[in-house]
Amino acid sequence: MLPEDLQIAVLMGGPGSEREVSLASGRAVVAALRKAGRNAVEVDVPGGADGGFELPAGTGLAFNVIHGTYGEDGGLQAELEKRGVPYTGAGRESSRVAFDKNLAKRCFLEAAVPTPASEVLDVSGGGVLPEMTPPFVVKAPCQGSSVGVHIVREPGEAAAAIADAAKYGDEVLVEQFVKGRELTVGILDGMALPVVEIVPPDGVYDMASKYPWLSGARGSQYFCPAELDVETTRRVQAAALKAHQSLGLEVYSRVDVLLDDQGMPFVLEANTIPGMTETSLLPKSAAAAGMDFAALCLRIADLSLQLGAR
To answer: Does the global pTM surpass 0.90?
Structure first.
């Protein structure tokens, strides 16, 4: 059990494109932990090679809610390991692999996780086009929240999409476009939680429809548990759990899945630091399983502390 007097530093912010979302997650986690009677302290982390942040004296656990760059790519985990501080969630290596969509794809394929067909483009010299024919999806491999993601439906759209994704690195992932329902599955302590279905307002789940409070755009609708038959639910959860395991992830994650018209799941990615406000998708899934937000935060903290300093 989590010690009652444990001081928990909730690390939020970070240097990436999801900073504002992370701050919202962090404040929600702090409020939930304090509501549960725990000693939780806010720590705004700017990120950087030297860590760029101080932990309060007596910190017994770092609760990481930094989405994307630094928080999910293994950078923060490496810094906390250097300091000998236990932290929540996936470890340094599993975070690094899950964050890089190209590395994660390899793990999925090796473990026979159902996932869209793909190819990786070396765009360091520019002007490269995929062998795959449209429709396909172009992705910047190491960005979160749909940053650098484009659906290419016509050949003439490919060059611009690849050029934009190339702004974020020398490799670009091109994936077969799978038409279907957008689902996500929370994984906690080796178990799949109820499936959430995402219905974006314009058919595309992008940064604006994920976080309408940032842009004033129309938000997506969410249904949990998703309206699926028992067998389809089992297939989706099994695919998500297998993806989580193939990446060697610890404690928890949230796995994004597309369900095609034949009821077959295709795993897209695993998020190691998913949104953590009370209305975020992992908390929705946990609530459908009978676990309120405060209980979810405490469970993540408890499971992580059991792993000790890594």
So the answer is: yes
Residue 23: both structure tokens together: 């701050």
From 70, 87, 205, 211, the catalytic residue: 211
CATH number for the domain running over 98-114+179-297: 3.30.470.20
Q: What is the pLDDT of residues 159-213, one digit of tens each?
A: 999 999 999 899 999 999 999 999 999 999 999 999 999 998 765 555 444 554 4
Kindly report the CATH class assigned to 118-176.
alpha beta
Q: pLDDT (tens digit, 9 = 90+) per residue, 77-88?
A: 999 999 999 999
Looking at 91, 256, 280, 285, which residue is catalytic? 256
Rounded to the nearest 10°, the torsion over CA 9, 277, 301, 8 is 20
Fold held by 7-88 = Rossmann fold (3.40.50)
Percentage of residues in the chain having pLDDT higher than 70: 92
Domain boundaries, the chain: 7-88, 98-114+179-297, 118-176
Residue of 95, 118, 253, 271 with catalytic role = 271
Catalytic choice (73, 79, 171, 269): 269
Has 254 been annotated as catalytic? Answer: yes
Classify the phi-psi angles of 74: left when phi > 0, otherwise alpha if psi is within -120 to 50, otherwise beta.
Answer: left
Q: Is 156 labeled as catalytic in the residue annotation?
A: no
